[in-house]
Amino acid sequence: MSQTPRLTAAEYGLEADRRYAALEAFRGALGHDAVITGDATREFADPYSPTEWEYLVPPAVLQPATVEEVQAVVRIANEFEVPLWTNSQGRNNGYGGSAPRLPGSFVVNLRRMNRILEVNDELGYVVVEPGVSYNELYEHLRAIGSTLWADVPDLGWGSVVGNALEHGTGYTRFGDHASTICGLEVVLASGEVMRTGLGAMEGNLAWHLVRHGYGPSLEGLFTQSNFGIVTRAGYWCMRQPETYMPCWAILDSNDTVEAFFDALRPLMIDGLVENLGSMFNAAGAIGATGQWTRDEVYTGEGAIPQRLAEEFAKRELGLGAWNMRFAIYGPDAVVQAKFAAVKEALEAVPGVMVAGTPYPGDDLPVDTFDQGQKVMAGIPDMSMLAATKFRRGREGGHLTFSSLVPLTGRDAAQIRDLVRERVEGIGLDYTSTFLIFPRHLVHVAVIVFDLDPDEAARAYDACRNLVSELGELGYSEYRAHVDYMDLVTSLFGYNNHALRRFTETIKDAVDPKGILSPGKQGIWPARIREAALSPWAATSAE
Ligand code: ADP
């Protein structure tokens, strides 16, 4: 079976007795209940890798409940020189879940740090600890009568902080989560607590309001990196609008995609469509509902033929070959005017139909809403979890392969056709979504597979090959599974990897013992750097 080359715990110099001594010290600091070992750690493995892939199961999971306990964990890790792998809810599914990049790392899971520290209706933000899930935040805002709409991704069980630190997305006007967090508190590898931006000034009143602070602006350093453990963050929210208008743009055929994106681009740059829209292909839309399994669509060999998926989506869902959901928010007159302008511009493309329904922001008929109508209004939902059952009617797995491309029809068509060919080439279905930002797209191929080792291995292999193939065309991933994280980093090689050498210099300075998430984003501690990076040397030399 093919898996990414990786260091073992022994190669890391992590002898069993040192790990055991550290475990005892963690128990002493946190209490036995906050240290999970044995079979229960499986919940913190990659839920979608076959059970035979033991390396993705952590040896123990530590659940500190306070900043002081996080500091204690970090100090013990330094003392015993054992690696930690931090997450918040730890549901980074499709990218490895909670599984550490370096086998043998202790997972630090922050679900118990789930306090909502502030809700500020006046200025439109909340302040949360890292374990706060979207579900919890939504329930809290409604319970206290707040009118804020906090942005949510597709599944409400993830954490506000974890998703943002991994550059995740949601679907309101604040869908770009890494730009929506503002003002961090971080436990450094030394065990010290630091506050970024204006938070470094005692008593500053605008900590969670000004993203750039008083320079240098460091917040980006703590996203998709391994320089600290974030223990608190501000999160900007939408104010409840007078009118909320969820819309669909329905494309009758695959051939309409290019012209559609070229017509959409000026609307995105001008801000006429303000939220983060997403466009599903027919098979993706069918799978995402969780209502059907693929053999109700197609029982033949290989991938579902595009024509059959399109016919099914049209008949059962009234959808087209591709379908973009987006929303308009604001005073009613503004919403109506924007909708008219968007409809006119998009329907000028032959084969496109745009429809939308306005709702009063303070009286949403939530019970009648579908998943898209909910998440674009900041209402969390869990129905998409059923999508992995689409393939065989039972719990399967998925890899989320997410590539960044310019918002042009040409690039959209190129990545769509290439990824489709590779995924269908291994007998799996092409179910995909474009996430639509003002100037770029994220092409998200959700590659659903059965949890049998051969089918999973084919999916993992295909993703690894695609990373390199797309790299040659000038496209990169925006987020990567732990399995091919280093491979993605190896493509960022400008000037003999100047970027990676810079992040390594920071790593060595702020985390000299290399205890924080070794290997995250291809950043390895000095003592194992050469060994860890050697599998990628061939790519680097090119
Ligand atoms: P989710 O909450 O959506 O389940 P995770 O908790 O799995 O997301 O976090 C996703 C990734 O973000 C982690 O793998 C880790 O790299 C990073 N991360 C999450 N929480 C923290 C944190 N508190 N401090 C530093 N990095 C974090």
The total of helices stands at 15
Computed structural class: alpha+beta
- Label the overall shape: globular
> For the terminal residues, how far apart are their CA atoms?
27 Å
Average pLDDT level:
93
What's the main sheet like? 9 strands, antiparallel
Low-confidence stretches: 538-542
What radius of gyration results from the CA coordinates? 23 Å
- Content of β-strand: 15-25%
**Portion in helices:** 25-40%
Catalogue the ligands.
Answer: adenosine-5'-diphosphate
Identify the notable features of this structure and list them briefly:
single chain, 542 residues, alpha+beta, 9-stranded antiparallel beta sheet, 5-stranded antiparallel beta sheet, 15 helices, 20 strands, 32% helix, disordered C terminus, binds adenosine-5'-diphosphate
